[in-house]
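Checklist before submission:
- one chain only
- standard amino acids only
- sequence pasted in full

Submission:
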Amino acid sequence: MPTPESMRALVAGKVGEPNDVLRLESRPVPVPEAGQALIRVTATPIHASDLHVLRGRYGFTPEFPAVGGNMECVGRVEALGPETEGLKIGERVVTMAIPPVPGPPVAGTWQEYLVADTRRLLPVPDDLSDSEACQLAVNPLTALLLVTRVLDVQPGEWLLQTAAGSTVGRLVIQLAKHLGIRTINVVRRRDAVDEIKALGGDEVICTEDEDLLRRVAEIAGRDGVRKAVDCVAGHVGAQVSQSLAPGGELVVYGALSTHRQTDPAALTIPLSARSVIYETKVVRGFWLNRWFGSASPQDALRALSEVRDLVAASVLSIPEGRPFPLDDFSEAITLAETPARGAKPLFVFADSHDEHDG
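Returned file contents:
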């Protein structure tokens, strides 16, 4: 079947609330240049960060009008640019659409076709569902990098993490269990404790009715905890820093406590100066986009390959998402930010698998 000349795309005309600024548009199908592939997208998730980009509160702002979806997708190679090798027409691939910082803009994923640098494409087996494959390059990769690269947590060490019930939090628990790392998991609600323990979390602290600093001290004993990850920021992030042993390190990768906040001055962590200075603690950030900006394409693909293999081996489990056609984008975006929403919403398109079997 020949590639059509036009496609549908979900486009934001300006900065604003996603459901106010997004529109379905018809656009020309892009043509790949040397070193590029044209991908027919089959599934792409709706991440909170995608929506924050449109609101202007993320770490980069695209040029508007801009196609939504700035992170990842799965699809099939529809065409290759001139003298481009290494991939085959019809091959199923994950697109690492995450924009490097600094770096050139990357095509949004909320469209039927996109062009990508072949160095940012990873073949994936057909036994991974579209839902699993289209979510490999953000949350599981973040978990892997935080645990094994950024903090280099060793078997037997304690790792303290906030928002343990989040997608990344659950993946950290699964990975830590696989690697022999002990986890202390912070949750907000008492009804989440049993679920986190069943998932493999060694210890769970519920801030609804427990004191975080006291419980960390009770669990970790005299040696304390030297490594922690936080995606809440605010008061909870500050408490995690304070609870670390002298010389400990906290890596902050999110700010859930300020989820709908657009004032940069409100995105804070009120650290204790005494704790940081006299106990020589380190607090630093991690942003996947900046990691992509500093990692070579080979290193990025190597890390993503590791994630792919862990998911294929059922070490890491990615829950099935809830599919939506582009026409239902308003409902899908609303669901993406609904508390306790259940499955992550995904935009899905017709798979071209059958067209290439022959």
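Reviewer check: The radius of gyration is 21 Å.
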